[in-house]
Amino acid sequence: MAIGRSIVQKPELFLFDEPLSNLDAALRVEMRQEIQQLHSTLKNTMIYVTHDQVEAMTLADRIVVLYKGKIEQVGTPLELYNAPANLFVAEFIGTPKINILPAVWRKGTLHITDDIIFPLSRKPAGVREGDKMFVAIRPEHMQYQQPGDFSLTGRTRLCELQGDSTLVWLDIDGHSVCLKSFQQLSFPSRQSLTLTVQEAHLHLFDALGKRVVLSPTSL
Question: What GO terms are given for molecular function (predicted)?
């Protein structure tokens, strides 16, 4: 009703402040689609405030990510997903949350543990020997029984079957890591499991959480 009253006044700009937060899941999806259609029909500017990243990703042309009153990043949904400016944005975008592992840059390689070492093809720009870093990998970019550039081995903690996919939670050197597989998988607790990842799917951050890009030239 509130949206309808606003439409008849023909405003140049709409401000939505978490309009779907009190709706059940099914109705929230339906109303999200209605708002998309309204925007397409009316062609008005809409500023939409939400804590729901699904709403942000599906409705927005551009997203402004705020943290404690400070703008962390502005961009299209895919820009924020593919190239988060810092660890806060990386963790905010994506469900389940992105996996984050501490690492150290040594002798041209990323050392995550004594047994997990990523020999990158290109050096992270501005990184020096011994610098602490963070390696972030989205759960949907982890792979099981598929070839990859690097591998990680851990022990399973929990499997969550979701029908069309499975979330497999593992412990890797004391760090919780999630695999999102579009297979129906099941593993007993504490089973050793090796996952792979492509270098292109790594997100690197410095010790302060700022995004680090790879240099254009090979090591």
Answer: ABC-type maltose transporter activity; ATP binding; ATP hydrolysis activity
pLDDT value at residue 138: 98
Torsion 138-192-145-119 (CA) sign: positive
Phi (first) and psi of residue 126, to 5 degrees? 80, 5
- Rounded to two decimals, the pTM is 0.90
User: Burial, 114: exposed, middle or buried (Cβ in 10 Å; 0-12, 13-18, 19+)?
Assistant: exposed
Smallest CA-to-CA distance from 37 within 5, 59, 66, 10 is with 59
pLDDT digits (tens, 9 = 90+) for 145-191: 999 999 999 999 999 999 999 999 999 999 999 999 999 999 999 99
| Stated length of the chain | 219
> How many Å separate Cα 33 from the centre of its chain?
23
Q: How far apart are CA 36 and CA 212, in angstroms?
A: 35
Class of domain 1-61: alpha beta
Cα–Cα distance between 6 and 19 in angstroms, integer? Answer: 13
How are the residues of the chain apportioned to helix, strand and coil, as percentages rounded to the nearest 5? Answer: 25, 40, 35
Q: Are 186 and 151 in contact (CB under 8 A)?
A: no
How many CB atoms are located within 10 Å of the residue 132 CB? 12
Let me know: does 99 contact 84? Beta carbons within 8 Å: no
